[in-house]
Design a protein that fits this description.
- By secondary structure, this protein is an alpha/beta fold.
- It folds into two domains: about 1-55, no CATH class; about 95-310, Alpha-Beta Barrel (TIM Barrel), CATH 3.20.20.
- Helix content is about 35%, strand content about 10%.
- It has eleven helices and nine strands.
- The strands form three sheets. It has a five-stranded parallel β-sheet with strand order 3-4-5-8-9. A two-stranded antiparallel sheet has the order 1-2. It has a two-stranded antiparallel ribbon with strand order 6-7.
- Helix 6 links the parallel strand 4 and strand 5.
- Helix 8 crosses helix 9.
- The longest helix has 22 residues, at about 1-25.
- The protein is globular, with a radius of gyration of 26 Å.
Length: about 325
C-alpha cells in the first residue's frame, strides 16, 4: 500500500518535471544549466569564487586541466622484413647517458627521471625521501626541484640532480650543495608558470622548513622571475663554465618552459656549452600555479619536443 502511494507520487513529480522541461522557454528552462555548465564549467565557477573571496590570484594544484598534446594520436611502426623484429630472447636496452661529452657523465638505467619537485614548496620531506629511494631502485635520478637540498634525500638517491634555481633564500645555489650532485640543472623557467615570480608567506613556513632554507623568522620564501646572475647569453656561458669547474665536470643542464622562442633558447644553451637541454611543456604540473599561466602560456610538450628534435637535426 505504502509502496503504491510512493510510486504514484514519484510518477506525478517526474511527469510534472518532464512536462516543465519540455514546455518552458529555453531561457527560463532548468535544462539551461546543462548548456551553461558546458560553457562555464564548475572549475571556472569555483576558481572565480576563490579569486573573489581572496581578492588576488589563486594557485591551482597540479597545473593545467587542459589536454594539450595529442599523445593518443602517436602510433608505433611494426617491422617485418624491411627491418627485422627483435628475436624472441633478445634483451632491450633502456640505459641512457646524460652529458656523454662531460668529464663525469650521468648514466641511468632507464630514460625516465623524477622531475624537480621541491621540499616544502611542493612535497613533504617524507615524499622527497620516498622518491629518492624509488629512483635508486629504478636506476634513475631524482631532482631537488626549486628548493633547498635535503641531506636525507641525497643519502637515499644514487643519482642526484641539483636544480640551480631562481630562489632568493640563503641556502640555495651554493657550491657546498651542488658539489654533492651528479648533474646540475640551471632552471630559468618552467612549463606550468613560465618565469613568473612566486612567494610563500612566512606564516606558512614552519621551523624545520625555515632552518633548511636558511630563512629568518618572518621572512617569506621568494622565487624571482630571473636568475639574478644570468641576464645575457654571455653570463649563462660563464655560469656553465664555472659550475663545470667547481664540480670537476659533472653535466650541466638548462631548463626552460617551451614557447615561441624555443629554438632561440636552445641555441643560447648550446652555445653556452650545456650538456643537457630540459624542455618543460605547457601542461607541466605545479604545486600551485596561476590558472592563467598554466592554461594560456607556453607550448604543449609534444609540439615542443618535435620542434626541438627538428632543430637539433638541421
Amino acid at each position: 500500500m505504502v509502496g503504491r502511494i510512493i510510486s504514484g507520487i514519484t510518477d506525478k513529480v517526474v511527469d510534472s518535471l518532464l512536462l516543465k522541461l519540455m514546455r518552458d522557454p529555453y531561457t527560463e528552462n532548468l535544462f539551461e544549466l546543462v548548456s551553461t555548465t558546458m560553457k562555464v564549467t564548475p572549475l571556472n565557477l569555483m576558481e572565480t569564487v576563490f579569486r573573489c573571496e581572496k581578492g588576488k590570484a589563486i594557485g591551482r594544484p597540479f597545473g593545467s586541466t587542459l589536454h594539450m598534446s595529442p599523445w593518443d594520436e602517436i602510433k608505433f611502426n611494426p617491422v617485418y622484413l624491411h627491418q627485422l623484429p627483435a628475436a624472441e630472447k633478445q634483451g632491450i636496452k633502456t640505459d641512457i647517458t646524460l652529458g656523454p661529452a662531460a668529464r663525469k657523465p650521468l648514466r641511468l638505467k632507464i630514460p625516465i627521471i623524477i622531475t624537480g619537485m621541491s621540499y616544502g614548496g611542493a612535497l613533504s620531506k617524507k615524499a622527497k625521501i620516498a622518491l629518492a629511494k624509488a629512483s635508486t631502485l629504478a636506476g634513475t635520478a631524482t631532482n631537488t626541484g626549486e628548493g633547498a637540498l635535503l641531506v636525507e634525500e641525497r643519502e637515499e638517491a644514487k643519482h642526484y640532480i641539483y636544480q640551480y634555481h631562481r630562489g632568493l633564500w640563503p641556502h640555495g645555489n651554493k657550491e657546498e650543495f651542488y658539489r654533492l650532485a651528479d648533474m646540475i640543472e640551471i632552471q630559468v623557467g618552467q612549463g606550468a608558470q613560465a618565469a613568473a615570480s612566486q612567494s610563500t608567506p612566512a606564516r606558512n613556513i614552519d621551523a624545520e622548513f625555515r632552518e633548511i632554507y636558511g630563512l629568518q623568522r618572518g621572512e617569506d620564501m621568494v622565487i624571482a622571475s630571473r636568475l639574478k646572475e644570468v641576464e645575457t647569453p654571455a653570463q649563462l656561458e660563464n655560469l656553465v663554465r664555472r659550475l663545470k669547474e667547481e664540480t670537476d665536470g659533472i653535466p650541466v643542464a638548462y631548463k626552460f618552459g617551451a614557447g615561441h622562442y624555443l629554438e632561440k633558447e636552445m641555441d643560447i644553451a648550446i652555445n653556452a656549452g650545456v650538456d643537457v637541454i630540459v624542455i618543460d611543456g605547457a601542461e607541466a604540473g605545479s604545486h600551485a600555479g596561476q590558472p592563467l599561466l598554466s592554461d594560456d602560456f607556453g607550448l604543449p610538450t609534444l609540439y615542443a619536443i618535435t620542434r626541438a628534435a627538428d632543430h637539433l637535426t638541421r
